[in-house]
Amino acid sequence: MTQSPSRETTDAYQSKDQNTLSLWRVLPVVVLLIGLITAFYMDLHHFLTFESLQDNRTSIMNWKQENYTVSTFAYVLAYGLATAISIPGAIWMTIAGGFMFGTIKGGLLVLFGATLGATIVFLAARYAFADFFHAKCGATIQKMEAGFKENAFCYLLVLRFVPLFPFWLVNLVPAFLSVPIRTFVISTFIGIMPGTFVYASLGSGLGHIIDQGGMPDIAAIWSPEILFPLIGLAFLALIPVIYRKYKKT
Description:
By secondary structure, this protein is mainly α. It contains 13 helices and no strands. The protein has one domain. Helix 6 runs antiparallel to helix 11. Mean pLDDT is 83; it is low at 1-21.
């Protein structure tokens, strides 16, 4: 007669399986962290500066003209990876997109690259930590989740339109609040559009700025001419939320 395994043995196997599952869950985040550490170790963030664009202006444009298709895909991929590992210098990458491809195409390439990178972070964080936060925070996170999910698209648009919080933080929080991936992707693509085209437009005139011996004003998005319309868009995005709350009263 075959003896069934003891309870201790069964629990040991279950514990081992849970540990293995935990390691697999954390793996995507570990890969992103390794990518960030590697980027800093290789000083890649030092290339995302005005001086780097200025010094390599001719080489960049020559490479783009000789390898137009490759440069297009390479730019989107590089932007996506830089966003995924949250390396500093995204503004200069956006300006570089406008410099290389012009305002419209450069802006569109940035939108695809940034949305791709943001989605990678979102999925990695959800896969690794969403269950952990729900288990630890319990009723608190469930209450936040219920309020946020009801108007997730509108809230995310506001957070994207007016960059009051770091881009990487806005990628993480929705992952812990069970926001649908479709809602996250669409709101990210639309929400970063105004700011993206502002900096892409700035990049399209970078050659003239360099020739004049000047430097682009990366704080332009905080000027009243740009900031007030962004605040207006954020307010419009909140109208459905206000309407729903008013209707419930």
